[in-house]
Design brief:
Strand order of the largest sheet: 1-2-10-7-8-9
CATH topology of the largest domain: Rossmann fold
Number of strands: 10
Radius of gyration: 19 Å
Shape: globular
Distance between the termini: 53 Å
Number of helices: 12
Number of domains: 2
Structural class: alpha/beta
Order of helices and strands: EHEHEHEHEHEHHEHEHEHHEH
CATH class of the largest domain: Alpha Beta
CATH architecture of the largest domain: 3-Layer(aba) Sandwich
Length: about 300
């Protein structure tokens, strides 16, 4: 398999299921498979790289790991820091992260600071912190994160029994895109990479990809220049439709940003086998779900039947 694995710090991250999506396959004219990264220990793909990054940070003498986050990185960093017995410092944009993700970070004992500014402001501050003795930045700018996350490629090939024609995934900061590309390089394979981003990056309801300035934009630009990567811009309506479709058509409940790869795939004319990487669990952002349509009925069969009619 490609990519590094944590040894003593592991919580069982990776080795997530690859499941075929028959109804989506019929609708898109592709053989679609879903790589269920939302089933990692903290509910997101971040765990693969975070386990490696925190383990190596401690080996280098770090006593505190720091990260900027729209939510998933925070939850993952806090969890692995707790397991390792070191401090985690998390900076998030004020009021811009889903409550469940903040709860995970707090529950794991991280020191969570909300920055009056954007994700980019938070990342700038974390980079400055990471230069101090005893601190280590564990955002995807840390190459150990990429080294751990690229293991997903080897798993896809192994589980599929071959190389997919297309790998589709969301595009926020670009760390996962960089990791998947690196995994393909190491495995010696060249599937088309398709990434979906929010057209309204700074304000999108898909909070996990609410990043105005992607940290890995230069790597993404190089991949585009090499004809290895296609970037698809998705409206808020298209993101919502892809997110709803995954849950209603295939029973896969993910957070809104995690359906961006599917949304991108649906806008392209492709054939063959496609793998969509589902990056985060739906329970990460339950606030995105409209539950106002719930119907209250009396405790009688007649009332239930009337409501069903």
């Amino acid at each position: 398999m490609t990519g590094a694995r944590a040894t003593w710090l592991s919580l069982g991250e990776g080795r997530t299921p690859l499941v075929r999506a028959p109804r989506l396959s019929e609708a898109l004219g592709l053989d679609v498979h879903l790589k269920c990264e939302h089933l990692n220990p903290t509910g997101s793909f971040k765990d693969r790289g975070m386990a490696v990054a925190v383990e190596r940070a401690i080996a280098r003498g770090a006593q505190t790991v720091v990260c900027a986050s729209t939510g998933n990185t925070a939850a993952s960093a806090a969890t692995y820091a707790a397991r390792a017995g070191v401090r985690a410092v998390v900076l998030t944009p004020e009021g811009a992260t889903a409550g469940a993700k903040r709860a995970q970070a707090h529950a794991a004992g991280a020191q969570v600071l909300e920055v009056r500014g954007t994700f980019d402001d938070a990342l700038r501050l974390c980079r400055e912190l990471g230069e101090r003795d005893g601190f280590m930045l564990v955002n995807s700018l840390n190459p150990d994160r990429i080294d751990g996350q690229r293991s997903v490629v080897g798993e896809i090939v192994e589980q599929l029994g071959g190389v997919p024609d297309v790998i589709a995934l969301p595009y926020g900061g670009g760390g996962n895109v960089s990791a998947v590309a690196a995994g393909c390089d190491e495995a010696g394979i060249a599937p088309a990479l398709v990434i979906g981003e929010a057209a309204e990056r700074p304000t999108t309801f898909a909070s996990a990809i609410r990043i105005a300035a992607p940290a890995h934009h230069e790597r993404v630009a190089r991949l585009i220049g090499e004809d290895r990567l296609i970037v698809v811009s998705l409206s808020e309506e298209e993101l919502r439709e892809a997110w709803s479709t995954l849950a209603r058509v295939e029973g896969v409940f993910c957070e809104p940003a995690s359906a961006a790869g599917l949304g991108a795939l649906g806008k392209l004319d492709r054939t063959g086998t496609a793998v969509c990487i589902v990056t985060g669990h739906g329970l990460k952002d339950t606030g995105a779900v409209d539950t106002s349509t719930a119907t209250v009925v009396d405790a009688s069969l007649d009332a239930v039947l009337e409501a069903l009619a």
